[in-house]
Specification:
The protein is α+β, with helices and mostly antiparallel strands. The chain has five helices and seven strands; from the N terminus they run βααβββαβαββα. Bound molecules: coenzyme A.
């Protein structure tokens, strides 16, 4: 498929989303390295995916893997650990389709929320997740050991989730004022 850069002519790239298998690793690693300054190694992926509650999914167009997501199953929520779309396939709805797939795994009587940490400097991801109806619920100070950066904890809640808030919404300015 020819990818157009014109916003008006933009088409969505339809992807098939399935579980990640070992054979996907070279393409996943390539997207990982093209996406993050502090990227996971193959060993990081394998160590993570060996955990019983850890799941990998990929998005493929034809035979080509163009996106991946690693997430954990918790009692009441899903937690995204790693997620990226290959740079030349961004802004074609691939990330949205993967998040929609994850939202489809929630259920009102079991897992009602999705959470993830996003780097304070990763504005692209913040804008993407805001568009997917995630809300920032907490600032996690110096969360990343590599750069010492803060993280924003983002959360998506099912519309009929009537449980308590996962976290109190923290207003950073109010925090400073209180000290
Ligand atoms: C975040 C990411 C996965 C989004 O994937 P994607 O396939 O490009 O997302 P989509 O095409 O589904 O975007 C849907 C909407 O989100 C918003 N959005 C996505 N990327 C955006 C950006 N860079 N700037 C502003 N808005 C953005 C837009 O509203 C977009 O709709 P539009 O293109 O019609 O305007 C991708 O940018 C990526 O891989 N980034 C690098 C890795 C990363 O930061 N991962 C997240 C770690 S927490």
């Amino acid at each position: 498929m020819a990818l157009s850069t014109s916003r008006t002519e933009k088409e969505l790239v339809r992807v098939h989303i399935r579980w990640m298998i070992r054979r996907d690793m070279p393409e996943v690693l390539q997207t990982e390295q093209e996406s993050f300054e502090f990227s996971w190694t193959e060993e990081d992926f394998l160590r993570c995916l060996r955990q019983r509650n850890c799941i990998g999914m990929v998005a493929e167009q034809g035979e080509k893997v163009i996106g991946f997501m690693i997430y954990e199953l918790h009692k009441n929520k899903l937690h995204i650990l790693n997620f990226a779309v290959s740079p030349c396939y961004r802004r074609y709805g691939v990330g949205s389709q993967m998040v929609a797939k994850l939202i489809g795994k929630l259920s009102s009587h079991r897992r009602t929320r999705i959470t993830l940490e996003v780097r304070e400097t990763n504005l692209d991801a913040q804008l993407f997740f805001r568009q997917q109806n995630f809300k920032a619920v907490r600032v996690m100070r110096t969360f990343y050991e590599d750069s010492g950066e803060d993280a924003y904890l983002l959360q998506y809640r099912l519309a009929d989730d009537d449980g308590d808030d996962f976290e109190e919404t923290v207003n950073r300015i109010a925090q400073y004022e209180e000290r």
